[in-house]
Amino acid sequence: MVGLAATPDGKGYWEVASDGGIFSYGDAGFFGSRGGQPLAAPMVGLAATPDGKGYWEVASDGGIFSYGDAAFAGSAAGLPPSGPHRVALYGDSLGMEAGMDFTYLARAAGASALVRTYGGVAVCDFLTSMASDAASWQPTDVVLEFSGDNFTPCMGGDPIGSPQYYAKYRADVEQAIAIFRPYGTRVFLSGIPFDAWEGANPNVASLNQLYASVAAADSGVTYVDAGQAVMANGAYTQTLPCLPGEPCTGPSGTNVVRAPDGVHFCPTGNTTDEGYFEMCDVYSSGAFRYAAALLGPALAS
């Protein structure tokens, strides 16, 4: 449920669900709903007419649906968000390494960036920050990048790959989406790249499938296969051909895009944590590519 409206005499009320369903109680009459019908964006609120013989439902994209004696006078559905993009990134060490480039690319495009990343964390570690940021900063777009860590207390110790582990990640991602839904924020779930260690990749694939399935079930969410930006034809690679305009420091016109540990991006593996950023001691083509892949779809929305 996402909203409530009372009848004029206070002896009844309507509840509205995110799928547009209406539930009436007391002397509140039922005049129709969007429940069971396709939606471009979830419902976020409800208002009743002064005589209580109709109501309006409002969706997160500004769409208005009127019932009973509620008149339709237009809506903001389909309009671009006002002002420049405000893009927030929440993630773990991969997002942390890409965070500086993410911020640079956002600002170069005229957008604002908010980065909340740290190594070893999971979605649940940022839920409180997300709620605060949603209310105070109201991002137009949010990118979630989490590669499946389960080290922190909020994960409850469920083993990686267990049904409880995947259920926890799904529930936390859905909770994050619900935090931003009332603000009309577009949410992008990022895919993660394969590791050099093949034993880890079934979990990577399962997480990517989980994120894609969550996005497919929610019209306000998009899955972005960002991990492909540092892979070659869907497989792990240590080097990729240099991008136009970037420093080219690897062998035979290539750049090293993955760290010696086969997981991260810094070519030397030598990094320094600075707040929400992990700074590589040399240029990191992998971090730049991943940042661009994380940010691009949000700026294009």
Give a description of the structure:
Helices cover 25% and strands 25% of the residues. The chain is elongated and about 75 Å long. The chain has five helices and 17 strands. It has a five-stranded parallel beta sheet, sandwiched between helices. Helix 3 (163-180) runs parallel beside helix 4. The chain has two domains: 3-68; 86-300, 3-Layer(aba) Sandwich (Rossmann fold), CATH 3.40.50. The protein has helices at 93-108, 127-136, 163-180, 201-216, 285-300; strands at residues 3-6, 12-16, 22-26, 43-48, 54-59, 64-68, 86-91, 112-117, 141-145, 186-190, 221-224, 231-232, 235-236, 239-241, 254-256, 271-274, 277-280. With 301 residues, the chain is of the alpha/beta class.
